[in-house]
Amino acid sequence: MKKFFYALAFVAISLWFLGPLFFIFLASLTPSSEFYQWDRIFPSKLTLDHIYKLLVNLGGWRAMLSSVQVAGIAIGISFALGIPVGYAITRYRFRGKDFIKLAMLFTRSIPLVVIAVSLVTLYLRLNLADTVLGVGLAHAAMVLPFVVLITSSIFSGVFVEYEEAGMVFGLSRFGAFLRITMPLALPGLAASAIFAFIMSWNEVFAASVLAITNRTLPAHILNTAMASPDYFKFAAGTIMAVPALVFIFMIRKYLISMWGISLK
Amino acid sequence: MRRESLVPFLLILPTLVYLVVFIGYPIVGAFQLSFTSDKGWLGNFKYVFSSKDFQNAFLNTLILGAVVIPIQFVLAILFALLVNKKWLGYRTLLYIIAAPLALSDVTAALISYSIFAPNGYLNKILLSLNWIERPLYFFGYMFKSREFLVIVLTEVWRATPLVFVILLAGLQSINAEYLEAADVFGFSSWKKFFKITLPLLKPSIVSALLIRTLFAFQIFGVVWLLAGRDIPVLAGETFYWYVLRNNRHVASTYALVIAVLTFIVGWFYIGTIRSKHLEEGVIQ
Amino acid sequence: MAKVTIENVKKYFGNVKALDGIDLTIEEGSFVVLLGPSGCGKTTLMRCISGLEKLTEGKIYFDEKDVSNVPPKDRNVAMVFQSYAVWPHMKVRDNIAYPLKLKKVPKNEIEERVKWVSELLHISELLDRFPAQLSGGQRQRVAVARAIVHQPKVLLMDEPLSNLDALLRVKMRSELKKLHERVKVTTIYVTHDQTEAMTMGDKIAVMNAGKIVQFGTPEEIYKKPKTIFVAGFVGSPQMNFLNMKVVSSGAQFHAENLGLRIPLKSDPKLEHVIVGIRPEHIHLQQTESCVPITGTVYFAEKLMSETVIHLSIDAEKNLVIKVPYDLSAREGERMQVYLDLDQIHFFHPDTQERIEL
């Protein structure tokens, strides 16, 4: 009896979450002629036409590249800056450690909305306005607190004793970090990199404000969405969704722990 | 852990500098922008606060939050309890529920559009079943209340997984023996949930509530794509004034309102709830 | 208080046979210990009795009632968990009182019982504190109080002393036993510590690999262990086991090896036999019926109150002897010791079971 309700719930929940995804995929693959037909739900044939046109004709490909570049910059910078902080928090005792942690939490709760608008002034002076680099730097700032929090929790999971064993047997502290801690932390770090990628990939507000010609994909969609025909909108949605879904699937093992940590 | 005075600070310094430049400075800038206008330092505020748009945006943002958040919590708890039972296929269920986490609000809005548009799937299905004769319209200025409905639905769909993940993490951290002890000592399933699970879940619930509320103040993409300015919200107005009206000052003012709301809620959280839960002692 | 009857209980987790046919009768009001190494199934058995695990096969009865399919909350059992499982968000008083409230015990009776049990376990001053503010030992007493005040039919305790430090453990052993004498509830106690089992149990069920190997009083288990496993598990230091060859000279049989010659009272009808003798039954002076053996001191553990000597009697074999006083023995010293013939055990070399000879 219980099993029946469970199965029912399972199916219902799956439909609720996967159904809409299915619809947008379907919509993006429906030929334009059949798109506006009232009585056609399932297309007679699937077409990659819209996706193609979006990428090639409507600047979708360029926007995608911008998105990837921005995300790459964001990850690169935030990891380069954040990993040392995460390490310092877990391995050293020093005054102000709690302050740092609080600062990270505080920074994270400041809406990007607030920062984005006045960031433009700064960018104008630094010649960063409307550049991929500019958006990347802003995203790095958005992601940095997460990186600090997640890496500090990852590093505290790697036992200090492994490092110390390395140091006893001849490695310097930095050497122990490189050869012992990092390899052990790698899976967690890879997962958080993907997580950061998705955050940057999806961010729309700052990307729209900080760049006009070099737009990331979501910013591009936002600004051309109302103008273009429906099927392009859906194609764009599909292009945005698919990589993100694939990535999330790849890091599924770490999902709960990471979101749990980062959102505490 | 060793006490070396300089090394940790050197490790942290670059990050601090970066954050000061890219977050601290713009915040100051935001203040500057909002407090600069032709009509004296409060000019922007006077303009904004007296405008109908602001009042609507403020109300809408709060109302949306007030409607969406409770629904998300109830659903998220149900999902989390179900998945935590670890019955057959629970891992698959977990990924399915978590899937929307990968999507941006823009994507979620597009998905809703593909379903609720005049030639969207909902209409197609209803028409082919002959339940309606003409398509239902959900978007457009005349259909504001329906737009609201679709937005609520989309937000619930999109952001419940966020709450779900936090609550699930909390559920999993509850030591199973607490619940087994309840089993042995005569608790019914209801009592177990309300007297043991829920209280022990409180820290997670509070965290999730905080996060969700903070994000709710910033709601933008879904509303903008589905309703444009039919239903103004604070972040949407910020965007409008900056990008479409080219007025950085007014835009900053709106942004600052969001920041103040965020600050107030955060303060409230730290001040009251957090200290109480620390006092009561934590799990294990 | 109830008599617990366990009939051919089996519990499988997939392919793993955690319990492989358990038959056990626990008399009303007795204190029975389930003793065995990790993985022997003792905790699983306890969880089955509590109802937290469902039986794959078999039945469990409380008195005459079949409770095999009754959920834990309706069985009227109480359990002290290894981690105590004292609910952290409730005060001590509520931890103890709330289960009674669920049982619909009238309010003034709850107050009386709480008062009685907290005095019994010396936690009266702690009633208004939260578990996080208590030490491990105090939390353990709260867990015991919660279980006792419930007035269950059966009281289950899952290694309740294993998380306490050594001194506290000894103290709590006697307190729990005294508690049982006062309260007289059927108690089933799980442990891997044979000292706890021997000092606390009315009867001990020694378990291994999902089966009960022997069920008897501590005296029976110590003096007449049914198998080598039981003999080796109970008693510290462990019993000495020697492989001996059976030799006959006319009508008289002997077990011979390593310079020992042990007379046998009857024909074992075997070629080999395993001889067991406890370290405390090997003496330094001759007694009425004994058998001598010489060896070299390999290692001596001096505990001042007693000395344990590892005596090398062969290239590979050490005999462990224990004397209850401080004996000076240097490594390499040659010693002659005497095995008490009345305390020798014989075991079948293949089945490992006890043989009377």
3D structure, described in words:
Chain A has helices at residues 2-29, 32-35, 49-56, 60-91, 97-109, 112-126, 132-157, 160-168, 173-202, 205-210, 217-225, 230-250, 252-262. With 264 residues, chain A is an all-alpha fold. Chain A has a single domain, classed as MetI-like (MetI-like fold, Orthogonal Bundle). The mean pLDDT of chain A is 79. Chain B has a single domain, classed as MetI-like (MetI-like fold, Orthogonal Bundle). Helix content of chain B is 76%, strand content 0%. In chain B, α1 (7-34) packs across α12 and α11 runs antiparallel to α12 (248-279). By secondary structure, chain C is of the alpha+beta class. Helices cover 24% and strands 36% of the residues of chain C. Chain C contains eight helices and 21 strands. In chain C, a hairpin with a 2-residue loop joins β11 and β12 (252-257). The longest helix of chain C is centred in the middle third of the chain and has 18 residues, at 166-183. Chains in contact: A-B, B-C. Chains B and C meet through α8 and α9 of B and β6 and α2 of C.
For this entry, give a set of tags.
heterotrimer, A: 264 residues, mainly alpha, MetI-like fold, 13 helices, C: 357 residues, alpha+beta, Rossmann fold, OB fold (Dihydrolipoamide Acetyltransferase, E2P), 2 domains, 6-stranded mixed sheet, 6-stranded antiparallel sheet, 24% helix, elongated
Summed up, what is this model?
The complex is a heterotrimer of chains A (264), B (284) and C (357). Chain A has 264 residues and is mostly helical.
Task: Walk me through the topology.
The complex is a heterotrimer of chains A (264), B (284) and C (357).
Chain A: H1 2-29, H2 32-35, H3 49-56, H4 60-91, H5 97-109, H6 112-126, H7 132-157, H8 160-168, H9 173-202, H10 205-210, H11 217-225, H12 230-250, H13 252-262
Chain B: H1 7-34, H2 43-50, H3 52-84, H4 90-98, H5 105-116, H6 121-128, H7 144-172, H8 176-184, H9 189-217, H10 221-227, H11 234-244, H12 248-279
Chain C: E1 4-13, E2 16-26, E3 31-35, H1 42-50, E4 57-62, E5 65-66, E6 77-80, H2 92-102, H3 107-120, H4 136-149, E7 154-158, H5 166-183, E8 186-191, H6 194-200, E9 203-208, E10 211-216, H7 218-223, H8 228-233, E11 240-249, E12 252-257, E13 260-264, E14 272-277, E15 282-283, E16 290-302, E17 307-312, E18 318-323, E19 334-340, E20 345-347, E21 354-355
Parallel strand pairs in C: 3-8, 3-9, 6-7, 7-8
Antiparallel strand pairs in C: 1-2, 1-4, 4-5, 9-10, 11-12, 11-14, 12-13, 14-20, 15-19, 16-17, 16-19, 17-18, 20-21
